[in-house]
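PROTOCOL LOG
Step 1. Enter all chains and additional molecules of the complex.
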Amino acid sequence: MAEPTSDVELMLRVKHGDREAFSLLVQRHRKPLINFIYRFTGNSGESEDLAHEVFIKVFLSASRYEPRAAFSTWLYRIATNLALNYLRDHRTRVATSLDRGSEEEEDKSRTELRDKVALVEDQLLSQERVERIRQALAALPENQRLAVVLTKYQELSLKEAAEVMKCSEAAVKSLIFRAYTTLRQKLIAVVESRA
Amino acid sequence: MTCQRIREHFWEYQRRQLSGELMGLLDRHLRSCEACAAEFDQFQQIDQALESLPTIEPSPYFDQKLNVSLAEICPSSARWGFLSPWWKDRYVWTFALLLLATVGLWLGFRHQQSRALRTMEDVLKLQDDSLGKKETLEMPRKTETVIHEKTPGLLVPAPEVGGTASGSEEELIPEEDLPVVENLDLLQDYEFLKKFDLADVSLEDSSGVKAN
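Step 2. Run joint prediction.
Step 3. Record the structure below.
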């Protein structure tokens, strides 16, 4: 049997109880979805569990699915709602884990530094750079972070991002502009040292 | 267009998503404005830096865990999943209810009709029974009387036709033979009965009676 090309076609099959079509959709979207949740929440450990919740919600809401918009828009809308709920429920815990994470990284880097000074220096710099970028992204307001993650990492168009965020394209553009301005202020040192 | 407005278009400009006119406008502006050019350069560096964030891979058990979660949440969906859209369709429910109501009404009507028929059958049976008794009682009078050939003036019942019974034989017909006598008019239409010698039977009967 030839694999259907469009997500909408697969979703319509899921709507009629086709579990195989659902498995194909999961295979197609699990990695981008997990990474979207990871970048938006900043928590890699919870991203898989949240992705599970998203897919379960997709399966349970399949009967109400109407192919008016792209499937990815609908998927990211569900994922955004769940991720926002998660962030609101775990706001304190996420902030603590981010701090703890950076402390652990520092401890780890000190140990490595003692063993392999020359080689590890580059890795450290790279890890530190990545960590600073991650922290700068995590520190953005939720709506700015969401706009950046959807357009930059998930490669959604401005229109699709606007549909996910339930706002206008102009609002998304404005959010991206403000996010990049903030990121530039925070990461200018990182960017210039790299250059 | 001001520098602020130009900078708001950086994201689309970098991805070549602007219209031809706006693309040309930004190209010209960035060539002439050093501040905006520097801003755009930093914008590109930040955009590139964001790409350095690593991606994470799903665990090898992601699908299995998801299937387990689905089975826990909707255990029936695996076996009856193909019916799930139907359960939720209100039109299907309406149709099913209408069908049930129609079948129920039809069965009820049939039941009532059969009861009515039974009653009617009972009435007819009662009627037949009562008529049968009546006819049995009236039978000797109803039986066709014919003038006896040998003894003119004597009236005998039809089965006695051709017989040599006397006037007193009318009262001697056994009761069990009365239905035969009663149905004789109907039976005589059959060819085989026409050939049958009724006279002999009557004679035998009458002789038997006589013997008794």
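Step 4. Note key features.
Chain B is about 70% helix and 5% strand.
Chain B touches chain A through 37 residues (CB under 8 Å).
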